[in-house]
Structure prediction request, 73 residues.
Amino acid sequence: MDFAFNEEQQQLRRSVREFGRGGDWPHVMEWDEASHFPMEIMPKLAEMGCWSDFFPEQLGGRALGYIEYAICD
Prediction:
């Protein structure tokens, strides 16, 4: 059994990591403590496909699985 990420998963992981490292997140600890998720981040995550992972392709989703969901989370 092969537990390595496939190429698409590796690319998603790189994109999410780059997004997290590239952002200026001065309030991330405050957001976490307040259980707040800033809505202005959502369009950026959607561009990477992190909001449509589980939706079927017929509905505009990517029909991805739990591994991809975990990568985005």
In short: Residues 42 and 51 are 8 Å apart (CA to CA).
